[in-house]
TrEMBL record:
Entry keyword set: Differentiation, DNA-binding, Homeobox, Nucleus, Transcription, Transcription regulation
Organism lineage: Eukaryota, Viridiplantae, Streptophyta, Embryophyta, Tracheophyta
Species this protein is from: Theobroma cacao (Cacao)
GO molecular function, one term: lipid binding
PROSITE patterns named among the record's database cross-references: START
Protein name from the UniProt record: Homeobox-leucine zipper family protein / lipid-binding START domain-containing protein isoform 2
Matching Pfam families: MEKHLA, START
Record's keyword annotation contains Nucleus: yes
SMART domains: START
Compositional bias ranges of the Polar residues kind: 31-50
Region (Disordered): 31-68
Record flagged with keyword Flavoprotein: no
BP GO terms, sorted: cell differentiation
SUPFAM superfamilies per UniProt: Bet v1-like
Domain START, residue spans: 66-294
Length: 758
C-alpha cells in the first residue's frame, strides 16, 4: 500500500506541476491576445475567461465574471479543483503526520493534520476494496457518515460540458455542546473525472470573495466557511480504490466563548469527526459487502447502522434544541446550570410513530434537561467507560422506570419517578461494532425491582439501546460518547427512540479563560461550565474545582449531558424536577474524580462548599472545640489538608444539621465510605439514624444538646450497620459541630475510631 501511495503521490505532483505550467501559459496568451468572446452558457471557454479576469484584477471579488451563470460557476469549480489537488497531493498546506494512529496492516490509512494554516485542515489516504463510483456515491451522502450533519440540501444541479456536475449545497451541522451556536455552510460541489480515470469530488464555500449565488439566510446558525476540500478516488489495478481526503474549514472561532475555542481550532478533532470518520465508514461498508463482518441477532448491517445514526441524531437534536424542530425554553426556576427545554410537537422531529403511542391526546410532549461542564484531569475515554460500566453509580432506578413506562400502552402508569430505590444491575448484550472497535452498539438489560408491594406489576426488566464510542485512550482528538434510549422487548426495526446521553470532547492542552459565557446566539439561560463543583439547585458558580493551580491545566475536556423524557402537561414541572435532580445533577456528582480513580480527590456534594474549604472547616472546628489537632499537616495548604483528611484511617463523615429532619450524610472520607459500604453518589441517600443501632441512637439523643452547646462530645464504643446491613464495631466516636468562616453552624461531623466489621 505504501508503494502504491508513493507512486500515486509522485504522479499527481507531476500532474499538478503540468497543470500549473499550462495555466500560466494560457494566462500569458490571454494577456497579449484579443478578448475572447464567450457564450455565458458555454462551460468550455469560461475557464480561460475567468483566469484572465483574475489576472487582470487580483482583488477577490471577480467583478468582471458573472459567477451566477453556469460558466462562472464552472470557473469557480475549476479553481476549487486545482486548489484541492494541491492540498491532497502537494504541499499547499503544511501537513504533519497525526500521532496516535494505529500502525500496521489493519491501519485505517495515513492521516495528517495542518500546522499554522488558515482555519483547520486534515488529510487522509487509504485503500478500500470498493470501486471508485461506489466510493463516490457513499462519500457524497455526507449525512450517512458525518454524525454532526443535521441536513444537506442540494438546491441546484448543473451539468458541465466535460461530463461532470456542479451542485449548490446548503448544509447545517450540529453544535457539539450547549454553549455555542451551530454552524452552517453554503457550498459549491464539483464532481468530475481526471484523464487517468480518477474521480474527484471537490467542494468550497461560496462567499463574497469567490462570488456566486448567495446562500439561504439563517438566524440560528453561524455561517462557517469550507475552504477547498474533497475526495480524490483513484482506481487500483485488480479492483479497489485509493482514496485521498482533504477537509479544510474555518469555523469562525471568534464567535465562540474563549473557553471552547480549542474545540474549533483543533485539526485533530476535525480529523476524527470528518476525515477519519469518512475512511472508516467506507471501510466498514466494504467489509460488510465482502461478507467479512458477521452480525448476530438476525439484523442486517444497514439496519444496525441506522439505529446508530438515529441515536446520534436524536441526541444531537436534544443538545441543540432548534426552534424549527419545535423546541422552546422552559423557565428554569433559577437553575442556571441546567437548561430545560420542551417540545410540544415532538412528532415533527421524532416521526409519526410517536404521535399516537407515546403522547396522550390531552396534551404532552418531550422535556429535555441539558448542561455542559468543563472537566479537569478526567480523560474522556475513562469517563465514558466509567459511565458505561457503572450505570448504578449515576442512574436513578426511578428515572429508568419512568422512561420504560413511557413505552407502554399506558405510558403514564408511573406518574413521576421516585428518588432513590434499589440500584439495578445491568447486563450488556453486544449487537454490532465497527471495524476498529471504536464504536459499538449494544442492548442493556436492567433488572427490575419493586419499591413497594403495589409496584410489583412494574418491576420488570427494562431494556436500553446503547451506542458507545471513543473509549480508546490513545485516539488523539477523539470524542467519547455514550448515548442510550429505552426500548421495549420487541425491539422492532422502526422502534421509536428518545435518546439521552453524554459527550466528552478533549480540549487541547493549553491555559484558557475560566469565566463562563453564554451561547453565541444569546438564547436560553446562562449555563455555567462548572456544574460538577456547584451542584446545589440554584445559581451556579463560575469557578473550576482546583482552578487555583495552573499545573492542573494539562488535561481538559468538555462534558455535555442531555436527558429526554416524555410528559403530560399537568406533570410537566414534576418531570422537570426529576430530569434536573434525578438525572443531570446526579451524574455530575457521580463523575467527581474520586469516583473515577482512587488516585483522585473528591469533589464537593450538594449543599456543601468545595472540598478544600470543607476540609479546612472540619479541622478548624475540631481544634476550636477540643483544643487538639485533627491532622498532622506540615503545610497549611488546603490541598495537603484535604489529602490527609481523605486518607485518614478513621471513618470521618459529615451529615446535615437540620432540626426538622433526620440528618443525612453529605460527605465522607475514603474510610467512611468503606465503613458504610457505599459510594459518594449513594451517600446522600443514607440517614444517620439508619446506621446506628438502638443503643447508639439513645446515646446520640442524650448527648445531642451537649454537642450543640459545647460543640463536641465523646461517644462510647458501639455497633453500627453499613448500608449493606453488615454490623460494624468502633472503639469510640467523636462528634463535633462544623462552623463556617462566619462561625455559623454548617454541619455535624462524626469520627468513628478503630472501626472494623464484626
Amino acid at each position: 500500500m505504501n508503494k502504491l501511495l508513493m507512486e500515486e503521490n509522485d504522479r499527481l505532483q507531476k500532474q499538478v506541476s503540468q497543470l500549473v505550467y499550462e495555466n500560466g501559459y494560457m494566462r500569458q496568451q490571454l494577456q497579449t491576445g484579443s478578448a475572447t468572446t464567450t457564450d455565458n452558457n458555454s462551460c468550455e471557454s469560461v475557464v480561460m475567461s475567468g483566469q484572465h479576469q483574475q489576472q487582470q484584477n487580483p482583488t477577490p471579488q471577480h467583478p468582471q465574471r458573472d459567477a451566477n451563470s453556469p460558466a462562472g460557476l464552472l470557473a469557480i469549480a475549476e479553481e476549487t479543483l486545482a486548489e484541492f489537488l494541491s492540498k491532497a497531493t502537494g504541499t499547499a498546506v503544511d501537513w504533519v503526520q497525526m500521532i496516535g494512529m494505529k500502525p500496521g496492516p489493519d491501519s485505517i490509512g495515513i492521516v495528517a493534520v495542518s500546522r499554522n494554516c488558515s482555519g483547520v485542515a486534515a488529510r487522509a489516504c487509504g485503500l478500500v476494496s470498493l470501486e471508485p463510483t461506489k466510493v463516490a456515491e457513499i462519500l457524497k451522502d455526507r449525512p450517512s457518515w458525518f454524525r454532526d450533519c443535521r441536513c444537506l440540501d442540494v438546491l441546484s444541479v448543473i451539468p458541465t460540458g466535460n461530463g461532470g456536475t456542479i451542485e449548490l449545497i446548503y448544509m447545517q451541522t450540529y453544535a457539539p455542546t450547549t454553549l455555542a451556536a451551530a454552524r452552517d455552510f453554503w457550498t459549491l460541489r464539483y464532481t468530475t473525472s481526471l484523464e487517468d480515470g480518477s474521480l474527484v469530488i471537490c467542494e468550497r464555500s461560496l462567499t463574497s470573495s469567490t462570488g456566486g449565488p448567495t446562500g439561504p439566510p439563517t438566524s440560528s446558525f453561524v455561517r462557517a466557511e469550507m475552504l477547498p476540500s474533497g475526495f480524490l478516488i483513484r482506481p487500483c489495478e485488480g479492483g479497489g480504490s485509493i482514496i485521498h481526503i482533504v477537509d479544510h474549514v474555518d469555523l469562525d472561532v471568534w464567535s465562540v466563548p474563549e473557553v471552547l475555542r480549542p474545540l474549533y481550532e483543533s485539526s485533530k478533532i476535525l480529523a476524527q469527526k470528518m476525515t477519519i470518520a469518512a475512511l472508516r465508514h467506507i471501510r466498514q461498508i466494504a467489509q460488510e459487502t465482502s461478507g467479512e463482518i458477521q452480525y448476530g441477532g438476525g439484523r442486517q448491517p444497514a439496519v444496525l447502522r441506522t439505529f446508530s445514526q438515529r441515536l446520534c441524531r436524536g441526541f444531537n437534536d436534544a443538545v441543540n434544541g432548534f426552534a424549527d424542530d419545535g423546541w422552546s425554553l422552559m423557565g428554569s426556576d433559577g437553575v442556571e446550570d441546567v437548561t430545560i427545554m420542551i417540545n410540544s410537537s415532538p412528532g415533527k422531529f421524532l416521526g409519526s410513530q410517536y404521535n399516537t403511542s407515546m403522547f396522550p391526546s390531552f396534551g404532552g410532549g418531550v422535556l429535555c434537561a441539558k448542561a455542559s461542564m468543563l472537566l479537569q484531569n478526567v480523560p474522556p475515554a475513562l469517563l465514558v467507560r466509567f459511565l458505561r460500566e457503572h450505570r448504578s453509580e449515576w442512574a436513578d432506578y426511578g428515572v429508568d422506570t419512568y422512561s420504560a413506562a413511557c413505552l407502554k400502552a399506558s405510558p403514564y402508569a408511573v406518574p413521576c419517578a421516585r428518588p432513590g430505590g434499589f440500584p439495578s444491575s445491568q447486563v450488556i448484550l453486544p449487537l454490532a461494532h465497527t471495524v476498529e472497535h471504536e464504536e459499538f452498539l449494544e442492548v442493556v438489560r436492567l433488572e427490575g425491582h419493586a419499591f413497594t408491594p403495589e409496584d410489583v406489576a412494574l418491576a420488570r426488566d427494562m431494556y436500553l439501546l446503547q451506542l458507545c464510542s471513543g473509549i480508546d485512550e490513545n485516539a488523539v482528538g477523539a470524542c467519547a460518547q455514550l448515548v442510550f434510549a429505552p426500548i421495549d422487548e420487541s425491539f422492532a426495526d422502526d422502534a421509536p427512540l428518545l435518546p439521552s446521553g453524554f459527550r466528552v470532547i478533549p480540549l487541547d492542552p493549553k491555559t484558557v479563560t475560566l469565566t463562563c459565557q453564554s451561547s453565541a446566539d444569546g438564547a436560553g439561560a446562562t449555563r455555567t461550565l462548572d456544574l460538577a463543583s456547584a451542584l446545589e439547585v440554584g445559581p451556579g458558580s463560575n469557578r473550576l474545582a482546583g482552578d487555583g493551580d495552573p499545573s492542573n491545566y494539562n488535561l481538559r475536556s468538555v462534558l455535555t449531558i442531555a436527558f429526554q423524557f416524555t410528559f403530560e402537561n399537568h406533570l410537566r414541572d414534576n418531570v422537570a424536577a426529576m430530569a434536573v435532580v434525578g438525572s443531570v445533577q446526579r451524574v455530575a456528582m457521580a463523575i467527581a474524580p474520586s469516583r473515577l480513580s482512587s488516585n483522585m480527590e473528591p469533589k464537593a456534594l450538594p449543599g456543601s462548599p468545595e472540598a478544600l474549604t470543607l476540609a479546612r472547616w472540619i479541622c478548624r472546628s475540631y481544634r476550636i472545640h477540643t483544643g487538639e489537632e485533627l491532622l498532622r499537616v506540615d503545610s497549611q495548604a488546603g490541598d495537603a489538608l484535604l489529602k490527609q483528611l481523605w486518607h485518614h484511617s478513621d471513618a470521618i463523615m459529615c451529615c446535615s444539621l437540620k432540626t426538622n429532619a433526620s440528618p443525612v450524610f453529605t460527605f465522607a472520607n475514603q474510610a467512611g465510605l468503606d465503613m458504610l459500604e457505599t459510594t459518594l453518589v449513594a451517600l446522600q441517600d443514607i440517614m444517620l439514624d439508619k446506621i446506628l443501632d438502638e443503643a447508639g441512637r439513645k446515646i446520640l439523643c442524650s448527648e445531642f444538646s451537649k454537642i450543640m452547646q459545647q460543640g463536641f462530645a465523646y461517644l462510647p464504643a458501639g455497633i453500627c450497620v453499613s448500608s449493606m446491613g453488615r454490623p460494624v464495631s468502633y472503639e469510640q466516636a467523636i462528634a463535633w459541630k462544623v462552623l463556617n468562616d462566619n462561625d455559623a453552624n454548617h454541619c455535624l461531623t462524626f469520627m468513628f475510631v478503630n472501626w472494623s466489621f464484626v
